[in-house]
Specification:
elongated; six-stranded mixed sheet; 4 domains; six-stranded antiparallel sheet; alpha+beta
């Protein structure tokens, strides 16, 4: 065992031509972290006047010069540290002339010049002082070794500018291994370096983490070293890459578990810190965190298998919880994809962490299934509905993790329904009230459990069943049975017409704009969720489902009864009577049954979610479909869509009190007069434009068809 000064007291050190450039001063996130970690470790040991051991440095001694086979990077850094402190403390630097580089002449010259020349280490811009020196040659900046040395010198200066550690540098030791004494020579160097590959991130991590664990507890270090090369590797082997390495899979999991522990510890934690070894050291200073990491790695086989036991994809299965995903093994997604949010969302990470914390010490039981169901429900309901969107956007964010991790982990081994039923401060917030309502029903009668679970696991509800919850068990069973059969239907128009027959609340108000007084969504296959979970619609859905059941699940019967007994000729009458309004319209780029409303008859069915796309008035859709003469003209923006009949009608569109009609120029006075008289057309201020008024007792569609057929 020796140190840098002792080696130079016996022999010079020559970095051979065959060696690569100095790399510890390169720029880049990974190298920056390695450099910072190394210097932080050196600082800590020197400050405490403790020994820092750097393992083996070995090579051959030829002509009284040591030529390192391994250890070049560490030796160069030690050279720069000794140089810095001897200059800073104005001590003799003569011994440093015995260290030289043979990789390039410029590298050799640079090492000589910085030793020979006076340098002011107190300067605030230390590196610029060196580069501006008359002995510094401009072309040296193209030498990668010199570039790296300058970066390292700057880092050393920033770290140690207020310290005088020259007399403590001998505390940095290494094993000096001379190859010639063991019958080895340069052939070994050539063979070893033919590989030409630096240590992988995984190899560096293992070495660093083992050393960290050793400082914490040697038993933990031994356990990690043994298991990382045996049973843990056995588990990750099936996730190996095309080079038969498990590095990425293991590190994905390690960074994941570290990240989640960090958010549990600290609500100010940011994701960028998780790969910083300094952060890793802080996180695992807590022995309990190391134990959770180790126990989770021990139980990974069990945890992976638990997903098939606990979860279904998008449908209700007895004793399982639907996750509404095609791939429900979230742990495997973590292992395979790591930090890719579009693959592993924060919701998925949260569920995995709950499973890990439970299964490291317990086996799955019904109480835990209830717990994880409530977790699923809560994180699904933390969401937003944006102004122009017809689907929810998840709003469960990283800033929420600290709160919810600690909250749910507190009740991990409890009966969550019993806890919800209490007047418990933690679980009495507004977000838990719906879960409390369900818990009280289940605790009062276990027969409520299955219909509640069936509704919760329906793809359009995802745990939010507030519009369908009832303390009438028979009704709840009927709702859980019939809701999927209704809204899984591809016949959207009949479903909507049947709902409208039961009330105006069949539509969802999506707000007004500068152009229109309101926008309404009526429902669409694949988009029912926002309607079924909308607030304040419980009474409506109760009425609709009860009517649906009473009418033997027959839409036509519901619609027929409505039309026979409804005396108004308002928008609702037309929507229920005429299928064309709600059938998919191929003239629109996207038809979501989304309507812009100026008044009940000046309506535009939107092609998409805004009026920037083509839109069509639903009443002219019907008239166009039921006459052979007219052509339907969709419009964009503020313009009204209209009907067009060549040489006769330039435009005809729906207005609040009837129809506005503009005759074509070729349609002469003798042709117009009989029509004006027959239909009592009212002339407007615009040339050739008339109003065809429609009595409130008459069907405006029939009036329009009669008019067109009279042309």
């Amino acid at each position: 065992m020796t140190n840098f000064r002792n080696v130079l007291g016996k022999t010079s050190i020559t970095i051979p031509i065959i060696q690569r450039d100095y790399a510890q001063g390169r720029k880049g996130d990974k190298v920056n972290e390695i450099r910072d970690t190394f210097l932080n470790t050196i600082f800590e040991k020197l400050e405490q006047n403790k020994t820092l051991h750097l393992d083996f440095v070995y090579g051959s001694i030829k002509e009284n010069s040591f030529i390192p086979l391994d250890g070049q990077q560490r030796l160069t850094t030690l050279f720069l540290l000794h140089w810095y402190f001897t200059k800073k403390e104005k001590q003799d630097t003569e011994f440093l002339k015995l260290f030289t580089y043979e990789t390039r002449a410029s590298s050799r010259e640079f090492c000589q010049k910085i030793v020979e020349n006076e340098i002011d280490c107190s300067s605030s811009n230390f590196i610029k002082k060196i580069e501006d020196s008359d002995w510094f040659l401009a072309y040296w900046k193209n030498d990668p070794t010199i570039q790296s040395m300058l970066v390292m010198i700057d880092s050393i200066h920033q770290k140690f500018k207020n310290e005088n550690f020259l007399n403590r540098l001998d505390n940095i030791t290494f094993e000096f291994f001379e190859l010639v004494k063991f019958g080895l020579d340069d052939d070994l160097y050539i063979k070893m370096n033919a590989r030409g590959k630096p240590l992988t991130e995984f190899e560096n991590f293992k070495a660093q983490f083992e050393q960290f664990l050793k400082d914490q507890d040697e038993n933990l270090e031994r356990e990690f070293a043994e298991k990382i090369d045996n049973e843990w590797t056995d588990f990750f082997w099936k996730y190996k890459d095309d080079k038969y390495l498990i590095d990425r899979a293991f590190m994905n999991y390690f960074y994941y578990i570290t990240e989640m522990i960090s958010y549990k510890m600290n609500k100010e934690f940011t994701r960028s810190k998780v790969t910083s070894f300094k952060s890793i050291e802080i996180i695992y200073q807590d022995i309990d965190n190391i134990k959770l990491l180790f126990k989770s790695l021990d139980k990974l086989k069990v945890i992976v298998k638990s997903f098939d036991i606990l979860f279904s994809k998008s449908i209700y299965e007895s004793s399982k919880i639907a996750l509404f995903e095609k791939d429900i093994n979230f742990l495997e997604l973590v292992i395979k994809s790591g930090h890719i949010d579009r693959v592993v969302s924060i919701q998925k990470k949260f569920i995995v962490f709950m499973l890990i914390n439970f299964l490291v010490d317990n086996e799955i039981d019904d109480t835990f299934k209830d717990f994880i169901r409530v977790v699923r429900n809560i994180i699904e309901r933390i969401r937003n509905l944006k102004r122009n969107e017809l689907t929810y956007t998840p709003n469960f964010e990283y800033k929420d993790l600290n709160k919810y991790l600690n909250l749910f982990l507190k009740y991990l081994n409890s009966n969550i329904y019993e806890e919800l039923a209490k007047d418990n401060g933690d679980l009495s917030d507004k977000e838990f009230q719906h879960e409390k309502e369900k818990a009280l029903l289940i605790l009062s009668d276990n027969n409520f459990r299955e219909p509640i679970y069936k509704l919760e696991d329906y793809k359009y509800l995802k745990g939010d069943i507030h519009n369908f919850i009832t303390n009438d068990l028979d009704d709840l069973i009927q709702y859980s049975k019939n809701l999927p059969s209704i809204f899984n239907s591809t016949n959207d128009s009949k479903v909507i017409q049947a709902m409208l027959s039961c009330g105006e609340d069949a539509k969802l108000n999506k707000g007004s704009t500068r152009k229109v007084s309101a926008r309404y969504f009526f429902g669409k296959n694949g988009y029912w969720e926002i309607l079924l979970t909308a607030p304040n619609k419980k009474d409506f859905f109760t009425k609709f489902l009860n009517v649906y059941i009473q009418k033997n699940y027959n839409y036509e019967s519901i619609i027929s009864d409505f039309l026979q007994n409804y005396n108004k000729k308002d928008w609702r009458y037309y929507f229920v009577k005429y299928d064309e309004i709600l059938n998919t319209n191929n003239n629109l780029s996207s038809d979501y049954n989304f309507f812009a409303w100026s008044n009940d008859f000046e309506i535009e069915k939107m092609g998409g979610k805004h009026l920037g796309a083509f839109h069509i008035n639903p009443y002219i859709i019907i008239v166009s479909n039921r006459t052979q003469l007219s052509s339907l003209m969709a419009e964009k923006g503020d313009d009204n869509s209209y009907l067009y009949i060549e040489d006769e009608i330039e435009h005809m569109f729906s207005i609040e009190n009837g129809w506005q009609i503009k005759f074509a120029r070729k349609f002469g006075k003798e042709q117009r007069e009989p029509l004006i008289k027959k239909f009592t057309l009212e002339e407007t201020k615009s040339s050739s434009t008339y109003i065809l008024s429609v009595d409130a007792t008459k069907d405006r569609i029939e009036v329009a068809i009669d008019f067109i057929n009279s042309l």
